[in-house]
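Records of this kind hold a single protein each, on a pair of labelled lines. Below, a sample record shows both lines together.
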Amino acid sequence: MVNAKQRNKAHKAGRRAGPAGARKQHKLPRRGETGAAHALGVRKGGGAAVGKGARKEAARRLKEQKKGALAAERQRAGGATRAAPRVVCALPLGVAAAAGVDALAQLAAACEAHAQGPNVGGMVAERDAGAPASAPALALDAATVSSARLRARFTLLSPDPTDVLAVLDAASVADVVLLVVDAPGASELSHKTGAAAAENVCVVSEAVRPALRALCAQGVPALAVALRGLAALPPTQRNTSKKAALAALARDAVLGEPDKAFPADTAADWQLAARALSELRPRPPAWRCGGRAYVLAHRVGFEAGATAVAEGADAPPADAAVGTLVLEGYVRGADMHAGQLVHVQGAGDFAVTSVDAADEPEGAAGAAQRKSGGDVAMGGGAGAGGGTCGGDRVLSVPSSSNRHLLMVENEYDELQNEQTWPTAEELEAADREAAARSQGRRRVPKGTSSYQAPWLLYEEGDEEGGADGMDDHMGGMEEDGVESEPEELVSEPEDDGVGAGGGGDADGMVTDGELRESAERVAAAHAARAAELAERRALAEAGEAEYPDEVDAPLDRPARHRFQKYRGLRSMRTGEWDPKEMLPLEYGRIFSFRSFAQARARAQKEAAALIDGEPSAAEQQEDGDSMTDGAAAGAHVSPGTFVRIRVANVPASAAQALVEAVCGGAEGVAAVQAGALAPARECLVCVALLNHETKVSVAHFRVTKARGCSYPLASKQVLYVRCGFRRFVTRPIFSDDGLRSDKHRYLRFLPQHGTAVATCYMPISFPSMPVLAFAPRDAAAAAAASQAVAAG
């Protein structure tokens, strides 16, 4: 008899069905699970919670943990009143460059603190008076506002969107990049919806695209979009215009999806925008999360006079004019200790004498603090309008045990590789060889006098006898034994473009027109030379790409001279190669690592021990300490504290250049010379360094040529490089990125496609750090570079 009972297919649990699977969490307890285990909803053997109350309690605990982590993250990034103000960088993407300043003025007006201080009024007044949009037009003190209702503070930056370097400087310290976008009008929108509606929409101007590409390579923080012009559209088209603008932005800007997008037309819109920016979750770039504290300078000062150097550290030159550079700003990113070395952009690496408390900017102080009569003043520092460089309360000073030594180059003995003193037999043999060489015949160029002949270089391989237009000299005598007559040296007239037949007065005077013509001829000659050099480089790059493993033998000199530095290898992969063979003399001055990974981990542990080993200055103050020098020697400063950093032994010339570039020219220099702190109008960053990050070594970067760079980039070409917060001019060499061998082939040019390794001398920077390279026209015009040619 056939069994007619239905047999169903067994359920397959899948790969996610385990002891903590979602289906097993909601199953009833097994038979025999009673008592305490069942009451708590926990199975025997450490299984998952099954009771409803236990699941709700677990969800509540998880929610509290996430809220606590988010609150701590916001406090570190500047979302709370006690933390540093959140830096907002406005970047207009349209044709109107003044849109960034206008947007920040409206954002400042939306904060509640604008009625208490002159900051917002100053921003609007200077903007109405025609302040340039390529600012920051205001000092950072005046561009810092707060809102008691939102419990948030903002520092507003508005760089020129067409200036690539200014945009990178502002974005490197920004917590939020605010893209100001003009929403497309009704005529630009099609009847399609979504991404298809953005086919004919362009929200990014061509002048801003280089800055956006460089910003994408450097790393983008949290991104917000302010849409202007939506209020002028009918309500039925606003949503379509917003979606089309965001789709066109994602297509053209290549910065990723924005974290927040909001309309920005009316005052009510900007009030909601201020709330959205204050609640926006911070998302700093990965390279800024390496445990390095940094300070965005609000005020800059300089005090002449050298400072004593710690034992074992590099001292400045004895005749150099140095002094103490004073910077005021908020500590950001991580805790700061005075024992750490710092890097000041545009000046170099230095030691810190002390970290003092300073007065916060007036716009950053809350309304309650201002009503209480300035309780935020923690020292005798300058207010918003400047002041003296003195301070009352010291937060942190370096101690003999907790201090990093400033060392740049390694000390080496130049005579270390010298051989022993030659013996008497070797000296006699050398004298006999020199006498025989002096009596022999030498081939010299035709017309060389007896005085010039001994100064010419002599090669052992030269043949005897005169040939090919060469004269034979024997100790300054001719072949017939008659001493040659000394030739009369006649100086030829200089060709300055104004000579015989070139114009000019009879008495040698040159007119202005002739000078202009001469300058034009010189400029035309330089242009022709540059064009010829560019053409030769293009041909050489094409030949290198077509025949990468071939080298042409020269026709003007022997091949043994051209390839005397080359070594033969049977195999690039298995051939033996001594990495220390024929090293240049400069390698004796640099530092090397036995294990780079271990050195990096040790430096990070030392920085953590320097911070975690001692209480912070705020904790010592709460405990009732008087903050003496002994107490401040081991203290560290928490993020969000407004401090005054004293940087020791900064060259006076570098400090003056910084003040002129950051504080607005002659006015800032005059204020600093008068002993006051000048307000900063440009971005100047002082970043704390890990141990060993001031020492010079050989650095390798994996770089890729930019898409918009069509001209060749040769090895040893002058490049302006930005590596994290560092900026320097160098001449890197390129090599292939082969990972299967310990030897890498030298590349004459950076390949158009694919990656290569750039090698140069620079201070050690532990990864990961973004690298951007610019090709200036010459070494003096490094800051005028406008387009990144390589990134990595």
Summary: The mean pLDDT is 74.
